[in-house]
Amino acid sequence: MRHLRDFEFIEAVIRAGSIRKAAEDMNITASALNRRINRFEEEFGYEIFERLPRGVRLNPAGELVLHHIRAQRSDFARLQSQVADLSGVRRGHVSIACSQALLPYFLPEQIASYRKDHPGVTFNVNARDRFEAERELSTFSSDIALVFEPHHLVDFEVVMSVDQPIYVLMRADNPLAQQKELRLRDCLAQPHVAPSAQYAVRLLLDAAAKKTNMERLRPIAESESFDFMRHYVLHEHALAFQFPIGLSLSGEHGYIARPLSLRDVPPGSLLLGQLRGRTLPVASARFVMQLSQAMQAYHL
Amino acid sequence: MRHLRDFEFIEAVIRAGSIRKAAEDMNITASALNRRINRFEEEFGYEIFERLPRGVRLNPAGELVLHHIRAQRSDFARLQSQVADLSGVRRGHVSIACSQALLPYFLPEQIASYRKDHPGVTFNVNARDRFEAERELSTFSSDIALVFEPHHLVDFEVVMSVDQPIYVLMRADNPLAQQKELRLRDCLAQPHVAPSAQYAVRLLLDAAAKKTNMERLRPIAESESFDFMRHYVLHEHALAFQFPIGLSLSGEHGYIARPLSLRDVPPGSLLLGQLRGRTLPVASARFVMQLSQAMQAYHL
DNA sequence: CAAAACCGGTGCAAAAATTGCACCGCTAGC
DNA sequence: GCTAGCGGTGCAATTTTTGCACCGGTTTTG
């Protein structure tokens, strides 16, 4: 769009770190770009770039402008989405930052179900940890975040939250599979794999083990990939841990899942959220509503 | 600003109702303006005007665009205000829609006090009833509203609220001035003036009179001007009604004010608010904080 | 019922804004 | 002290925008 063109050039300069490099990226002369930037600053009333000998860098005013640019663009996208919606077109795009756990079962099912009604809507799904997810929201890189136990929560507006007990994964022939509910001490006595430290599952397990004076987790394998861990238990007689929303509980994938007793380990909170105060495009807003309903089904 | 120019032209067309008239207003040729509008619609992807034989009119998509334009402009003003603030300039502009009652004492004092610290900040103060005030907020015509008992409350985000008992105004030689607190029936027995029906004071008085089976108000004069009524009691031996925040309680202006008993008439709520979800410019946000503190002093 | 008054839209040339090119002065790094 | 890379500027070329004249259509007016 015409009226956002200055903003595109400004963003290009920010990315490139210098006007000349940005000019090359944008297929324009450095002098032309230089004048655009200068004219913008003049009209805006304040400089937004520091001039360094090797290039330019945003000053504090520029940081505000950058945020404004991002907000502006997202706002305009929402406007178009609203207009498209009222002309009955029902198209749009939804961008999601989510925990890894939701990638195999939950989100594919939800998205497929949504697209059955709204085939014009496209999706963007990226695995992000809870820090990155919030950052993605505040830079307008994602519309929606779906993560366990997010941290800051300053820019994160919680739309829906469900508690999830931790489940233990094992092969069907594991004797523990006979019990309906497992105790933490029984699990730690067996060989187990565990997610690395930044994941909510691991945090909860570590805290629980520490609290009850049991010995710490001694995973035979640590990984950032729940996919890997889910498959590992099929090969060696080991346990893995995961939230049920990331699992298939039918047993048809070869593994059995049993909940850890809530007496031992508190549940983790799965939070659905968006950037605080932001009005989402129509498609995203509707998908949030669907997710929110789907999450209620997981309510303890 | 450059990137808002299309928006200015669009607004001009909306105001004028036809491209030709708008072109005249904007000192431009109709053909040029026509092409701007057409180009915008083409780039935007949707028509925003209905072409009528006598001009043009916004279609529903256009309504959304209009709202976007207003939000955009306000957002840009806030950005400039934030940047100005961080360069230490402390300038800006605050636009207030408020009840008449706040014009004589409360707001002048508050604004003067604020401008002592921030002389670069300018103000816009307009008396609006509670319907108009909310409309002003949602069209971004005012930043802040300060009204009694606003109605819709859908777009109105309450920042602070204080209850105000109704006070009775009289000349110092009125025998009622001897009492610390007045009963409604005593007041209605005397000649009195009253605000017209749309005002909160009148609503409360009418409701109270009706409820207690007393006879209705029989004002010897009805007016929309509290200024008029305040002065009237100085000339004839009559009573007037007003919230204390609109009064000088020192007696130095010639009238005496006594509260109506809360047993007879419930207090009215003075609400300080802004457009829901909007982030105000720095100057406005700070002034809201000051108003909020000042209002606490009136807490019952 | 016809003329006049407006309306949005378009072709074309004039005017204005933007861009590209050549070049300046400056600083960091070698 | 030399070079490479940077932001900035004067001037001409180029692209974009505008103004003017005019078209076809509809409503108002006499």
From TrEMBL, chains A, B:
Keywords: DNA-binding, Transcription, Transcription regulation. PROSITE patterns: HTH_LYSR. One of its GO terms (cellular component) is cytosol. The keyword GTP-binding does not apply. One of its GO terms (molecular function) is DNA-binding transcription factor activity. PANTHER family: HTH-TYPE TRANSCRIPTIONAL REGULATOR YBHD (PTHR30419). Belongs to the LysR transcriptional regulatory family. This is Transcriptional regulatory protein. It comes from Actibacterium atlanticum.
